[in-house]
Design brief:
Blueprint: E1 3-5, E2 11-13, E3 21-23, H1 26-34, H2 50-55, H3 67-73, E4 77-81, H4 87-94, E5 99-102, H5 107-120, H6 124-139, E6 149-156, E7 161-164, H7 170-177, E8 192-193, E9 203-207, H8 215-224, E10 229-233, H9 235-239, H10 248-257
Parallel strand pairs: 3-4, 4-5, 6-9, 9-10
Antiparallel strand pairs: 1-2, 6-7, 7-8
């Protein structure tokens, strides 16, 4: 019986290649599709591919899964993530089903995850080919000037504050690969910051997710930070660590070329 060790050091046993997979992570759902694997269920945030989002059973959100819906699907494998999913729920599900957890902080972690998921679903060659293409694409990414760039993922009113990407996040690794200097590199996870903490930034990036930053937010923050360039960016290229990484270097090159 094959044994598979996940990225938090847990080992699961699979008697055969799984055929009823539930993915609790949007970027890993898209990866499974790219691998030409199949899923029995996804979360309501697994928006890619659209054909799965419209037709596959949904088992709740990434932080609040529905145990009854999962049980009804009789999964033979659940794929989760340490950061994106709730720890207590993951541990509870792991007591009932084979459950594999990813833990992604760097591009290297992501490539390891891609290869591991390929092994799990009996698509090792396809996964290796995707990982190789991603690495090749990133090798051609030439970093831009070392400008100080904050990446914001959330906004709160009264008083106005934001959540920024810290130094132990996958987003941070993507920023570094673009040549940006993250002013919050010394912080873990997603520190809460006030506008004054962004005063030293040359660039402020407003992500499209999880908070849906729009042009009105860009205008608002640009008025508060006249010294910086404030840009809206596609959060999937900075934070989705599956097959979406295939297109990330091109997106980053376009972003860099649009900066003065």
């Amino acid at each position: 019986m094959p044994a598979f060790t996940d990225q938090i050091g847990r080992t699961i046993l699979l008697s055969a290649a799984p055929v009823r997979v539930i993915s609790l992570v949007p970027s890993q759902t898209e990866l499974l599709y790219t691998l030409h694997a199949d899923v029995a269920g996804i979360t309501k945030f697994c928006i890619r591919p659209d054909v799965w989002y419209r037709n596959k059973p949904r088992v709740g959100g990434t932080k609040n899964v529905d145990r009854e819906k999962i049980a009804a699907l009789c999964p033979d494998l659940i794929i989760a993530n340490k950061e994106e999913n709730d720890r207590d729920q993951v541990e509870s599900l792991a007591g009932c089903y084979p459950l594999w957890v990813s833990d992604i902080h760097t591009l290297s972690d992501a490539l390891q995850m891609i290869r591991s998921v390929g092994e799990l679903v009996d698509r090792p060659r396809e996964a290796s080919a995707i990982a190789t293409r991603i690495l090749d694409n990133f090798s051609g990414l030439i970093p831009g000037p070392p400008v100080t760039a904050a990446y914001l993922i959330w906004r709160t009113d009264s008083p106005l504050s934001f959540m920024a990407a810290g130094g132990d996040t996958f987003i941070h690794d993507m920023l570094v690969r673009c040549g940006f200097v993250n002013p919050f590199a010394g912080h873990t996870r997603y520190p809460t910051v006030e506008p004054a903490a962004l005063a030293a930034c040359n660039l402020v990036l407003l992500s499209s997710e999880p908070y849906p930053f729009r042009e009105k937010h860009q205008i608002e923050l640009q008025a508060l930070l006249p010294q910086a360039k404030v840009r809206l960016v596609d959060g999937q290229f900075f934070s989705w660590y599956g097959s979406r990484l295939l297109g990330a270097p091109r997106y980053f090159r376009d972003l860099l070329s649009g900066l003065p």
